[in-house]
Amino acid sequence: SFSYIWDYSEKTSFKSRTTAYQSISDLSTNSSLVRVESSVSIKHEINERFTFFGRYLFRLNTPLVEGGPNENRITEQITYTSKFSNYSTAQRLRIDHHFIPDNYQTRVRYKFGATFPLKKSAKSTYLVISDEILAKFADQTFSGGNRIEIGTGWNPHPKRKIEISVEYRTKNYFIDTPLERTVVISTTFNFKH
């Protein structure tokens, strides 16, 4: 994914992001491009510990074949950050509203993560570990999921950030559907104005 961040003020920033999801199981077909997402968001630092985040996202499903249905999503999020001498933690509560043709879904997500600098003398390279619990409400049904992620990042410049991570996802808890497992490998490039 590629992100561009514009600082409006010391405490408020806007972000534009585009992400493409590629399936490695069928790279030779047009359906290997699973989805493309574009989003715009606002982030506001309430104080040194609390941050508010709001986002609008449009998801285009299987864009190279007749896929669908496409999706609009609105997100509200609050994050609580704690900084310690050699690492930091973040707790995030997020609510996603999914608007899909003939369907509306709400997801409530709680994520706990920690960031550890890999060198004591410089915080330019770091390790990230997180665990996220999800609850989905749709069509009078309830299901759950979990996402565990480990990754590494590098800040080559104060306004540039590159992250590579591996995420193990499970979903369909609490419903009569087989448990679904997915591994997501992602690379993120952040550019700040």
How would you explain this protein's 3D organization?
- With 193 residues, the chain is mainly β.
- Helices cover 0% and strands 73% of the residues.
- An eleven-stranded mixed barrel has the order 1-2-3-4-5-6-7-8-9-10-11.
- The two termini are 17 Å apart.
- 3% of the residues are buried.
Strand order of the largest sheet: 1-2-3-4-5-6-7-8-9-10-11
- Oligomeric status: single chain
Encode the helix/strand succession as letters.
EEEEEEEEEEE
Summarize the main sheet.
11 strands, mixed, barrel
Structural class: mainly beta
The strand count comes to 11
Count every helix, treating DSSP H or I runs of 4 or more residues as helices. Answer: 0
* Low-confidence region ranges: none
Share in helix: under 10%
Average pLDDT = 90
> How large is the radius of gyration?
18 Å
Silhouette: globular
Percentage beta strand: over 45%
Helices and strands in order, then pairings?
Elements: E1 2-7, E2 12-22, E3 33-45, E4 50-61, E5 71-83, E6 88-100, E7 103-117, E8 125-138, E9 141-157, E10 160-173, E11 180-192
Parallel strand pairs: 1-11
Antiparallel strand pairs: 1-2, 2-3, 3-4, 4-5, 5-6, 6-7, 7-8, 8-9, 9-10, 10-11
Features of this protein?
193 residues, mainly beta, eleven-stranded mixed beta barrel, 11 strands, globular
